[in-house]
Design goal:
By secondary structure, the chain is α+β, with helices and mostly antiparallel strands. It has two domains: 4-62, 2-Layer Sandwich (Alpha-Beta Plaits), CATH 3.30.70; 66-242, 3-Layer(aba) Sandwich (Aminopeptidase), CATH 3.40.630. The chain has helices at residues 36-44, 77-88, 100-109, 122-133, 173-187, 200-204, 212-222, 235-242, and strands at residues 4-5, 27-31, 48-49, 57-60, 65-68, 92-96, 137-144, 147-157, 160-168, 193-196, 208-210.
Amino acid sequence: MVPWLSPDDPFPPLERALGASSGAPGLLAASADLLPSRLIDAYRHGIFPWYSDGQPVLWWSPDPRMILRPDEFKVSPSLKKTLKRVLRDPAWEIRVDDDFAAVMRACANAPRRGQRGTWITSDVIDAYSSLHRIGDAHSIETWFAGQRVGGLYGVSLGTMFFGESMFASVTDASKIALSALVAHLRRNGVTLIDCQQNTAHLASLGGREIGRKPFIAHVRANVCAHAIPWRFDKSVLADWLGHGQGHTETPAVPTL
């Protein structure tokens, strides 16, 4: 039985999440509220919300957990070529927190293979926008010729980044934003990005699974660290590529 949380109830121990043999592995609890305070408490414990419109808020702690280590990020030859073009052409920009809610709306409207609808409802946008206003959630945006063409958003606590969603309206635009994020996180000593659940796309970029216990240990050790700065532009890519990073040659991954 999945416990129902009243507003003041703490999350149950993570070990009580449903197991692999259940129909919903990793499901930990359900609630009616998606308050900013509840969200922050969830992320500090390695828990995230994911549910469909019309459902209660469902809270998850899967085992294993998909993660991406910035120093394991895979840059294909084609993506490296694209990043160099982005650096040369002033029409390309990386903006941070230009319009957080707009990025969330774009992610909500992005088509997902095998998925119908989105969990990024207006209530979810409002909740994460509240985190953004207090400096705990950020958007990294790819712009071309004055138009936002891709980006991502996530939650940042201490030296821990929890990725939420990405979108692209032109080829590789979300990968450009992710590359800038990886470069920024490496510069600031962040060693792990939470990707929540396994997808082939994330695996192609270097994502992999780790067990819940080491993931939670990493979260607890990093969420209380001093917050990192959240101001950068595409020059972070120049520093990263110029110091021999992003050089991993892997087979070209499918374009978005």
